[in-house]
Design brief:
The structure is a homodimer.
Chain A lengths: L6 H9 L5 H11 L2 H7 L1 H8 L2 H7 L3 H11 L4 E5 L18 E6 L8 E5 L6 H16 L3 E4 L5 H11 L4 E4 L13 H10 L1 E4 L11 H11 L3 E4 L7 H11 L3 E4 L7 H11 L3 E2 L3 H9 L17 H6 L4 E2 H8 L3 H13 L3 E4 L3 E4 L2
Helix pairs in contact in A: 1-6, 2-3, 2-16, 4-5, 7-8, 10-11
Chain lengths: 357, 357
């Protein structure tokens, strides 16, 4: 059997059981494209990820790959890899971008300015109204509304964007060919038609509580800021807000009555530094005050990327780079990967990085 | 005529027209006690305050002084000067402490730990409940509740403290022998009996809008922190909060629905750095650095009327309620009436309904 190449290699890398995101990033950092991983051979792969190399190379993903390739041949269904220019640039900024994402709908929406709007599944009627109204206003101003297709606030946020004829993206925790919850099936179909549904999970992945926090990091990752509309103090929305903060995104929260349990999560966020917002304009003011970053993590001018300066013109190991840059290994690897994909650096044997001028 | 001495000299200093607080402080800084000002003679006084010296020394305050001395001889009526040990130590920390204050009631309360509780005169029913409940809890923990005897939040704060058999101080903007507004006369008498009424204005001073901001600085000055319960964005409560901040006092604010105009002032404060509080414990924690044993009363009624859920915690109009509940207007109105009679909801101007917890 010849080693998989191109998209098939990306799928093999991401479908192999036991090979998580971190392992994938290690391999990509060491070998560059997946093609090189599979042509490098077992012992080279072992030198990077130890015994997991066997899990990866013993795995026979032929059937799953065929299914995925077939899925991606249907109209408006796409599989984007880290190496694709259509891959959302905003996700390259987060420490753990998925190696591939499955997209139903218009992948161009993933490149525009976006705001996450999330909140409780058991929202109050006023909370639903707020989610819908804020989203409608923001979408009307050209912002894509990103949410999680859950019942309650999420669904109201998507609906608000659609009501404004605006863009909306649903990031889901199941396979892109599965809709959960079933009650949002119709909404999901509309989003697939007029917006986009995004999943990093293999096709067919069922709903599983463990996957939702991972999904939440993508909601935040795709967004310049995240608005929490209503949330209990222990809730997935607060996880999304925390991840957004860690990713350097703005966090916004709508306050409410101190007697409303679903205002408490928002109040907690505000106490932790989230911006209290009363209107969609409060959000726009905050986000427009920022530099109009059109999500360009890899500047055309190589000299603009600070990591290239840090790297200098000599080969340098990862540990040394961690020390020089002050970045965590994860976010450093993700930066390095995007520089590599842009052809700005090369990875040498022994995991050393070399600037390419 | 021999120069006034002792309390009479303090009264002469503070009653002379045209001699404001700043001028008084200049003289006290230059001469020490007022006795020394009046025995120093015109040219010495001129060297400190220029032509204002004539205003001060030409003034014949005999009648006013006699009235004040007579007032202060009555039981539970006191005039405290900056030189008195009973003068509130907290006021000595502010940049512009009044030279004398008139006190009806127990001046010892001015020395204990105190929290200011202020807010709108046109408070919502829930706002009044919040003011009363927070004040009751704080007073029950030994904190003196300081407010301004105004209608609305102020009166509710005083009442809450009294309900806990706690201490409360009303700082007023009229002479200590005048009560404004008249509707709070009975409350004022109770405060004079069981707490204290404080004014820096000469006896007989009528209500005058210009005096209230000065009054507000004393509410903040007497307090370790100030809680704003409900306030419009342009309001005296925000002045009190600003002065509190300038005096180095903590500022606390209760958030509310983004659709309630009286939550906006609180939200503005929170955005400016005030602490968002949901319970009296939040305040105590901040001021004590530790949580006290008792908890703020937040009722938890298991057998809740379903319409209360439908209503949520934001004000809501009838049409919206018809839509949310699916009930006919007639049966909805009868349900609403019984909830109102049971004290569970309040009717706001514009026929909007607000849940009361």
């Amino acid at each position: 059997m010849s080693p998989p190449r191109g998209l098939a290699a990306w799928l093999h890398l991401t479908l192999a059981p036991g090979i998580g995101g971190e392992t994938q990033r290690k391999l990509l950092a060491a070998f560059g494209l997946p093609d090189h991983i599979f042509s490098a051979g077992l012992s080279a792969v072992r030198s990077v990820i130890g015994n997991k190399a066997d899990l990866l190379l013993d795995f026979d993903p032929a059937e799953n790959i065929a299914q995925a390739l077939n899925w991606a041949e249907q109209p408006d269904q796409h599989i984007l890899t880290l190496a694709d220019t259509a891959y959302p640039a905003s996700l390259l900024e987060i420490p753990d971008p998925p190696s591939v994402i499955y997209v139903r709908g218009n992948p161009a929406l993933l490149q525009g300015p976006a705001i996450g709007v999330v909140g409780s599944r058991n929202a109050t009627p006023q909370g639903l109204r707020n989610a819908e109204q804020f989203s409608r206003t923001l979408a009307g101003q050209g912002w894509c509304i990103v949410s999680g297709l859950a019942l309650g606030i999420d669904a109201a946020a998507h609906r608000g964007a659609l009501a404004a004829d605006g863009a909306t993206v649903a990031v889901i925790g199941t396979g892109a060919n599965r809709i959960y919850p079933a009650r949002n099936r119709e909404l999901a179909l509309t989003i697939a038609e007029r917006g986009a549904i995004v999943s990093e999970f293999p096709l067919g992945t069922p709903a599983n509580a463990a996957n939702f926090p991972r999904r939440n990091r993508l909601i935040a990752g795709l967004s310049r800021g995240v608005l929490v509309v209503e949330a209990a103090t222990e809730s997935g929305s607060l996880i999304t807000a925390r991840l957004a903060g860690e990713q350097g995104r703005e966090v916004f929260a709508i306050p409410g009555s101190i007697h409303s349990p679903l205002a408490r999560g928002c109040h907690k966020l505000i106490r932790q530094g989230a911006k209290l917002v009363e209107t969609a304009d409060d959000i726009l003011e905050e986000l427009n005050g920022q530099a109009p970053a059109r999500h360009a993590p890899i500047p055309d001018d190589a000299n603009e990327h600070p990591l290239l300066d840090t790297l200098g013109h000599d080969p340098c190991g990862l540990d040394e780079l961690v020390e020089r840059s002050g970045l965590g290994a994860d976010s450093l690897l993700s930066e390095l990967l995007s520089l590599e994909l842009a052809g700005k650096i090369a990875v040498l044997p022994g995991n050393r990085y070399q600037r390419v001028d």
